[in-house]
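Priority: medium. Attachment 1 of 2:
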């Protein structure tokens, strides 16, 4: 079985760093999860006057208003078969601020018609994003959103999300860079940091609904 990233990248998948092939080659048949722990060097973005409005998305683990440096971070990835019978993988992200724990969650699957990965955002998956995938010269993974859809009714091209991830051989960890940008408001959120990952055995009963924690 090929992972959703292998299907999206085709032969380019083998150009990824071996540790990225291991991470992004994970499928439900392997019955493992990824537990990542680390720190975000800095979380920044969004004009001060606009940040309170981001709390609307915080409840659904879409986005949040807090910003800071050296923020503790955890990541859980679950590979599973979704309710439509499609291979999927979840991203359960937690950011530990002094007075709040914030989530930024998603579940991804490969869409045959679009020939791309579709990212269902938040706990309710009310927003979806179509992602283009590529490999950098250094063997890193590049993700770039091309369009977003709200409740299958409204499609728009902004904001855009880009992600770059590569493997740091000296640290034996993954370096992550995420940037969400709006053409009117500029950077809504940008974070980067280092994540150490473990691959742990699981059973189906361990996987949360949609692979997303409540």
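Attachment 2 of 2:
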């Amino acid at each position: 079985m090929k992972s959703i990233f292998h299907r999206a990248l085709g032969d380019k998948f083998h150009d990824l760093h071996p540790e990225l092939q291991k991470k992004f080659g994970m499928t439900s048949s392997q019955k493992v999860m990824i537990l990542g722990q680390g720190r975000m060097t800095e979380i920044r973005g969004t004009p001060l006057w606009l940040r309170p409005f981001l709390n609307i998305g915080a409840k659904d683990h879409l986005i949040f208003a807090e910003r800071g440096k050296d923020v503790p971070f955890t990541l859980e990835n679950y590979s599973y078969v979704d309710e439509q019978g499609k291979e999927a993988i979840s991203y359960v992200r937690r950011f530990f601020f002094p007075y709040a724990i914030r989530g930024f969650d998603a579940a991804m699957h490969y869409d045959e018609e679009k020939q791309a990965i579709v990212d269902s955002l938040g706990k309710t998956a009310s927003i979806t994003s179509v992602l283009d995938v590529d490999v950098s010269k250094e063997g890193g993974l590049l993700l770039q959103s091309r369009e977003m859809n709200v409740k299958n009714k409204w499609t728009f091209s902004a904001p855009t999300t880009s992600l770059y991830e590569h493997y740091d051989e000296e640290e034996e960890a993954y370096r992550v860079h995420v940037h969400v940008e709006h053409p009117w408001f500029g950077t809504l959120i940008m974070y980067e940091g280092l994540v150490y990952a473990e691959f742990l055995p699981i059973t189906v009963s361990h996987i949360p609904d949609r692979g997303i924690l409540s």
